[in-house]
Amino acid sequence: MILKKLLPLAAIISIGFTAPSVSADTFVNAADTVEYRQHAFSMIRDNFGIMAGMVRGEIKYDAATFQQHANAVKHLAHIPLAGFTGVGKNVTTDSDALPAIWTKWSDFESKMNDLINASAELAVAAESGAIRTIAPKFLATAGTCKQCHDNYRAD
Question: Which spans in the chain are helix H?
């Protein structure tokens, strides 16, 4: 299971952290689309969890490790949006996605862009190595996740 989650990250690392070019016609069926976005969010969650542990003091803070995870989230944040368009559009089966995503698409897309922007700011803050500089940006990024979870995800 862990290997399955790490393979997408390895692919991202191997291409130098560039966001893949995915269009609405990339996916063969709705199940592929849902799986794509779920894997992307899982990778974001896994990287974010390690940073959260460091910010909370539950995991020993290591600036280089934090930076790696911040950079990963920065690049992963671009990926999930494609999984809400095309063949899988409006698909909530086997998913925590709420139909409101598509009825309030502009707001959802804006919130996803907030995640992209906040995670980029977090990665820049992580370059300082100072947890006092990082913590506010970490909390701001977490807040962008919460915005979508509160409005667009069935928890």
Answer: 2-14, 30-56, 63-76, 100-103, 105-126, 131-152
* pTM for this predicted structure: 0.81
Which residue ranges form the domains of the chain, and what is each CATH number?
Answer: 29-83+98-152 (1.20.120.10)
Task: List per-residue pLDDT tens for the chain, 155 residues long.
Answer: 444 444 444 444 443 444 455 555 566 677 888 888 899 999 999 999 999 999 999 999 999 999 999 999 999 999 998 888 866 566 666 788 899 999 999 999 999 999 999 999 999 999 999 999 999 999 999 999 999 999 999 97
Give CA torsion, residues 111, 12, 48, 104, to 10 deg: 20
User: 3-state class of 55 per DSSP?
Assistant: helix
Assigned token pair, 155: 């928890």
